[in-house]
Amino acid sequence: MAGISAAAALEARQRDPHAAIEMGRSALKAARAAGDAREASTAERAIGLSLRELHEFDGALRHLRRAVRIAELAGSGRLAALARVSLAFVLSTTGRHAQALRAVNAALPELRGVDADYARMQRGLVLHYLCRYDEARREYNWAIEAARREGDKLGEARARNNRGLLRAYTGGLRAADEDFDRAAALYRELDQELAVADVRWNAGISASRAGDVPRALTMFAEAEREYRRLEVPRPALLINRLEVLVSVPLLEEARAAADRALAELGKGLVLARSEALFYRARIALMEGDLDLAVRMAVAARKGFRREKREVWEVGARHVELRAAYLSGERSRSLCTAMARVASRLDELGWRMAGLEARVDAALIAREIGDRRRAVVELTAAGAARRGGPAAHRVQGWYAEALRRDLAGNARGAQSALRRGLGLLDEYRVSLGAAELRALSGAQGKALALEGLRAAVAGGHAGRVLRWAESWRAGAMRMTPARPPEDSGLADALAELRAVTSDIDLALLAGKPTAALRQRQVRGEQRVRELTRQTSGGGAVDRVPAVRELAQALADAALVEYIDFEGALLAVVVAGGRASLHRLGPLDGAVREIRLLRFALHRLVTLPEHVDRTAVRAGAEHAASLLDRRLLSPLRRRLDERALVLAPTGLLGGLPWSALPGCRGRSVTVVPSATVWQRAVSSSRVPHDRPLLAAGPRLPAAPTEIAAITPFAGAASVLVGAAATVDAVASAMDGAPLAHVAAHGSFRADNPLFSALELADGPLTVYDLERLRNPPERVVLSACDSGLSAVRPGDELMGFTSALLGLGTRTLVAPVVPVPAEVTTPLMVDLHRRLGLGEEPAVALAGAQRAHADGGDAAFAASVGFLCFGG
Question: What is the rounded distance in angstroms from the CA atom of residue 757 to the CA atom of residue 769?
Fold first, then answer.
């Protein structure tokens, strides 16, 4: 390090801060030996700024204050001023904005030329932190123009990066990206790798604000990889990822990330910690934990007040007020406070939060009878429908619908709600990843509920069905998007399978698995990140009219169950017309489903010598109660017709075949009427080679495959070591039939990692999503493989949603545990009937009827199978 100058160390801080610190220490040692105070001050400054890049803020402040003192003792006003500007940068980063502003203001009179421009840029940054956005923008503009005049590429890059972030937060998204592109290009010219990563990070924030989730996650992932390579910590990156997770919303993951951020963010990162509290409050609010939401919001607001960040403080206040509204408070004072918060958020550039607060104020005003105020607020909020990010326009159309309804324009209100949901569908299609599409449906809840409420009040069955369908299982109505072949997903899935196999081997050998499970968690997160970066496109299936459904149903009957504010409704389409039925509270059905599933589980798991009489009676009782609740009130409309059942999410996991009214009857279960119509009208022509596969550690599986082979024609048969994930997926691609007998697992915590166990590890939902052409018919004789996780909007996540969403016509799978040894006869009979040309639902009903008397375990396993799709 001999001969290294302090200026070189200072220049290297955003390229390699670790090396810059060593260079600075070497230069400091040489300067002290030579008695060169000016060089020593610059070296201290280089070390301090490098430590700031590594988030070692106490050390950074110590070295920068020392740089100021040394320069003052040497009589160099310029160097002392430059050190004060750098000190202001770190002070503001740690939330001490008033001190930072005093430091930079004290420095400015001592500086000229490029030095003054640098100070103006840093002053802009302090003002930016203080949410004094107009003043900050003026300082950034000054610094950029001055840097361009002087040919100062580094100064221009820094100012553009900062101005880009300011624009991202205040709505100038296109201009923000222009700044980021220019800053990144300049930093690359200067070989400033760390600074390029910082620009990527900020570009991710801009993409997040624009609602471009795939791009935001891609930018964050690229920045994070670069930070890891350079061994530079950026714990505050957690906060920006939090904002994306909350926007989708990926609530479970967001909650874990927020809790992790609060645990890991050190005392120096006070700004990030306050923001973590804010997002944790928002998560609690969305999850309905209002007490926690208020506690977190109050803590965040106090932090923002100390840090003098007004816009964040007002945002936290909105969370508090919204929690009061959701808890049932309705008062003029709450309305006034909400309207005041809305105006301030809008003035400060937080337009989406301002929109939400304005609509909240209008709803409160409407409920307390202040129609004039409600109209004023809704008119202002409705203007957002004309432009901006999709989320803004959706909220704007919701506000416009409410305004039209208040004006007595019911038809116009319905039209506005449909426009809003249509925009939301366009946005969701752009996301690509099935997970993001499914979860983002939550953003349409208010619009769909408003439309449904009006339809139910009017009592028109066709309109109720149309509004239920407009929001139900929307992700499955969208053209599926496959990740690019070079995305790295295939390698990530292969690595995850290897880790899973290692865990199984370790368990068999009695070895510890903690380290392997950590690798598994990291591997799963990698898979999720890669799929989420996929951009989408394509079309959204149109909701069919009642007459179209009636024509497709022919002699069958469709029953769509709807959760309407805790009450269960049913729309029946049969005989060419639709009818609306009220079935009472939903919670009773949910309780009875739990009892039925528990009893069926006991029937298949109790040892042979245990008397099952009472358990069977319990199962029959629960099934009868559900039948009386769900089917008996509809009996006159249903007659003896084949049934197509579209249950609402809380009825998920119900083994419909166990209900007396469904036994021996052709029953098809579908996520929605729209998905069913697409399945039955599919004209895709598969290739002519079925797939039959058996997984490991299931002695009955090869026997089952051998028994059904004669009915499957010239099939690809994969058993034992041949039944690998790649081989099974390849043979499944485009097959007319795929039957997999294997151990199955349903992951309620992460349903897309639900899996079928094959020779080399799990075949997950993510593997299925990579198929180019889905199999036409699928039979899974694996425990719980028909189960799905349910998200808002009756969005399903699991094997059922993946296969039907990709275009599979029919899936036969169980929603309860099914022992292979007692289900093999059922499966053989099913395939025999399919071979005779029976439709899947008819074939399954016939096989279940034939095997109903095979004993308690056989009964429970048999009725656990459902026919999904068309």
Answer: 17
